């Protein structure tokens, strides 16, 4: 693991602070939860109008929640790839149902102005870009880092600490 003089990780691209990995994972998890929530808001009318699409929504929401939970606990490449894959599936599904009439959704062909759909597209696009960015940073940036809790004293381990104590 390469670090600069200040102890920050170097990945070949811009230097990444170790705590930034936790921040990126938190942002990814929250955007996935947001995407799931946006689809959850439409679950009842979707199940009533097009049951197959409603079932797809339920599976999509479950995937968002599962990948978000995994991002909270670990930020490995597979998890970030899954986050990108879920978001790509949402983007592709929206475009697919707007271009083709399918048994999943035969009512939205040409309807590109659904407000909640556009909001979901925006957040899915951002999360897909975040996933690509984190994967491009490399393995060092994705590693979880232990951060000391505020107010807790560390044991005196350095020479200066021993002399002061």
Record the SSE blueprint.
Layout: H1 18-40, H2 43-49, H3 51-73, H4 77-99, H5 115-137, H6 139-142, H7 159-164
Strand/helix succession? HHHHHHH
* Protein structure class: mainly alpha
Rounded Rg:
21 Å
Strand content: under 5%
The termini sit apart by 33 Å
Outline type = elongated
Which regions have little confidence, pLDDT < 50, spanning 5+ residues? none
Tally of helical segments? 7
Largest sheet: none
Question: Could you tell me the mean pLDDT?
Answer: 79
Describe, in plain words, how this protein is organized in 3D.
The chain is an all-alpha fold and 165 residues long. It has one domain. The protein is 66% helix and 0% strand. The protein has 7 helices and no strands. The protein has helices at 18-40, 43-49, 51-73, 77-99, 115-137, 139-142, 159-164. Helix 1 runs antiparallel to helix 3 (51-73), helix 1 (18-40) runs antiparallel to helix 5 (115-137) and helix 2 runs antiparallel to helix 3 (51-73). The longest helix is centred in the first third of the chain and has 23 residues, at 18-40. The mean pLDDT is 79.
């Amino acid at each position: 693991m390469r670090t600069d003089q200040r102890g920050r990780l170097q990945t070949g691209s811009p230097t990444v602070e170790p705590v930034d990995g936790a921040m990126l994972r938190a942002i990814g998890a929250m955007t996935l939860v947001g995407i799931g929530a946006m689809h959850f808001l439409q679950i009842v009318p979707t199940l009533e109008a097009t049951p197959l699409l409603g079932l797809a929504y339920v599976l999509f929401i479950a995937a968002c929640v599962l990948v978000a939970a995994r991002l909270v606990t670990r930020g490995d490449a597979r998890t970030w790839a899954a986050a990108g894959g879920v978001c790509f599936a949402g983007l592709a599904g929206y475009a697919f149902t707007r271009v083709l009439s399918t048994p999943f959704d035969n009512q939205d062909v040409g309807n590109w102005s659904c407000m909640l759909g556009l909001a979901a597209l925006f957040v899915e696009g951002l999360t897909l870009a975040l996933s690509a960015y984190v994967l491009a940073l490399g393995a060092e940036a994705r590693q979880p880092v232990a951060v000391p809790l505020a107010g807790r004293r560390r044991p005196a381990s350095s020479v200066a600490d021993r002399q002061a104590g």
